[in-house]
Amino acid sequence: MKKLPEAIGPYSAYRRQGRLLVTSGQLPLDPETNRIEAESVHDQVLQSLANIEAILSNEGLGWSDVLKLTVYMDDLSAFSEVNEAFGKVLGEPFPARTAIEISALPMGSHIEIEAIALGGQG
């Protein structure tokens, strides 16, 4: 089982009901330190995606099971960095995706990503 960052509040990192898996927003927390170690938007995206991948793996799922990703960003001008990082991790068919700019994220993060997946029997 892959290690996940600890939740930073009274919530679950994810919930699974049958075949449906929904994550909470995944900050780019390093699972070893539970801190944001990555500084660039690109590297923060990679860490958030790694955290989602760990959740998927722990539930016997993979990226092909992900239907939708929602990306919260503190600056949409970094959208090309987000796309570059996504391209390194995800392959076709890509999940549906929404990007939303918000004024601030917890712990000074630039990125938070949530996922919805539908996989095998749960």
TrEMBL record:
SUPFAM superfamilies: YjgF-like. GO terms for molecular function: deaminase activity. Belongs to the RutC family. This is Reactive intermediate/imine deaminase. One of its GO terms (cellular component) is cytosol. NCBIfam families: Rid family detoxifying hydrolase (TIGR00004). Transmembrane segments: none annotated. It comes from Bifidobacterium xylocopae. Pfam families: Ribonuc_L-PSP (PF01042).
